[in-house]
Each structure stands twice: as structure tokens, then as C-alpha cells.
Automatic annotation (TrEMBL):
Domain named ABC transporter: residues: 5-220
An annotated Gene Ontology molecular function: ATP binding
Keywords (A to Z) from UniProt: ATP-binding, Nucleotide-binding
Superkingdom field: Bacteria
Protein name: Xenobiotic-transporting ATPase
Species of the source: Methylobacter tundripaludum (strain ATCC BAA-1195 / DSM 17260 / SV96)
């Protein structure tokens, strides 16, 4: 099996400051990995680099064994659901936010039914009547789960998650854990939550932009 993501000695410099230095790791389909470390250690920068939001100074990022280039980055983005701490839902109501991607030609023929919308909300412990609510009036934790629901409706297989459990209560967090127990989903995340770290098969520890330790299933 080929890795879905591979960083090969990647260094990134932004505004003359090195934010990632000589980073190398691989992630295979179905694996769940978490980037951890102090604030400013480069965790979110790894996600942003994969999405083509930071220029690579040296080294190569591979996605499905193809080098990341300005032209290939669209392939990464089309396969990926990125969910940050405060997702932008891009529509006035929750229903409109969930259906927004299905207005475009690529997804127009796969518009979910009302039953499918409600089913995915239930999986994430969200009530059906949230569909009528304004996006601006729901909590940060609800926005994260709506963004996750949209990724699931689109059939995304790779999830880049930035502190997605930070605003969730125990019940909602368990619902997110349950969703990502699916072996078909690949996860590269940023988190400080000890429960999330325990659930991930791989822990990448960063310090000052360097990968200092890799733990797999509890082993270094």
C-alpha cells in the first residue's frame, strides 16, 4: 500500500522565519495521526503546507505519491476536508451551509436527501431542527460538527482537523470519535486533548518546527 501523504525533508520559511525544518513522515490510508507540541511548534503549519497555503523552501510533499505543485494542489483540496477551530460555513442557514457544495457541477448529481441530512446530523449528536438555525447563531463546537457533516455528505476520505474537540462536551466528543473510528477515513489532526491523542494510532511530536518524536500505537 502506498502512503496517502508523505513529507520528505520539508522546510518552510514564511516572512524570513523558518516555521518547518526538515520534516519527514508518512501517513497511509486509514491511519489516524495527531500533531502535538507547544504553541508555535509548527503543528497547524503542517496542515497548511499540505493544502498549498505555505510555499515549500526545500524538500517535497507527496500526495498519493504525486509531488505537491501549484497545479496539483487542487487535487489535494478536492479530496480533503479541512476543519479548523472556527470553520467558515459560507451560508446564512445551517441547511444552506450543508447543501452549498452541491450547487456546483462536480457534486450537483449527488445532492443529499432530507433523510440523509438528518442521519448525518444524528451521527454527530446534532438535532434535526438545527437545519433551520442561522449559521451565525450556532456555537463553535456546532460549527465544527456541521463542517464535519458536510465532509461526510461529500464522501471525503481525508480529514485535516485543527483542535476539533476543543469546544465539545463529552457526549459530542464521543460522537466525533465514533465517526473517525471508520477504517476508510484517514485523519491528520492537531490536538492537545489527551483523549484524542489516545485515540490516534500515530503521534507526531513537534518542537520549534522540527519533528522530534514519532509514537506508533504507544511505541516510539
Amino acid at each position: 500500500m502506498s502512503p496517502i501523504i508523505r513529507f520528505d525533508r520539508v522546510s518552510v520559511i514564511v516572512h524570513e522565519k523558518t516555521i518547518l525544518s526538515d520534516i519527514s513522515f508518512t501517513l497511509f490510508p486509514g491511519e489516524k495521526a495527531v500533531l502535538c507540541g507547544k504553541s508555535g511548534s509548527g503543528k497547524s503549519s503542517v496542515l497548511r503546507t499540505l493544502l498549498g497555503l505555505h510555499p515549500i523552501k526545500s524538500g517535497t510533499v507527496y500526495f498519493q505519491e504525486q509531488p505537491l505543485t501549484p497545479s496539483s494542489v487542487q487535487t489535494v483540496r478536492s479530496c480533503t476536508a479541512y476543519i479548523g477551530q472556527e470553520p467558515m460555513l459560507g451560508a446564512e442557514s445551517v441547511r444552506e451551509a450543508l447543501l452549498l457544495p452541491f450547487q456546483f457541477k462536480t457534486h450537483r448529481d449527488h445532492k443529499p436527501t432530507e433523510a440523509q441530512l438528518i442521519e448525518v446530523l444524528q451521527r454527530l449528536h446534532l438535532p434535526a431542527d438545527i437545519l433551520r438555525q442561522e449559521s451565525s447563531r450556532i456555537s463553535g463546537g456546532e460549527k465544527q460538527r456541521i463542517a464535519l457533516a458536510r465532509g461526510l455528505l461529500l464522501g471525503k476520505k481525508l480529514y485535516l482537523l485543527d483542535e476539533v474537540t476543543s469546544a465539545l462536551d463529552a457526549e459530542s466528543k464521543q460522537a466525533v470519535f465514533d465517526v473517525f473510528s471508520d477504517p476508510q477515513l484517514t485523519v491528520l489532526s492537531v490536538a492537545h486533548d489527551p483523549e484524542w491523542l489516545e485515540r490516534c494510532g500515530i503521534v507526531f511530536e513537534l518542537e520549534a518546527g522540527r519533528l522530534t518524536q514519532v509514537k506508533r500505537n504507544g511505541n516510539t
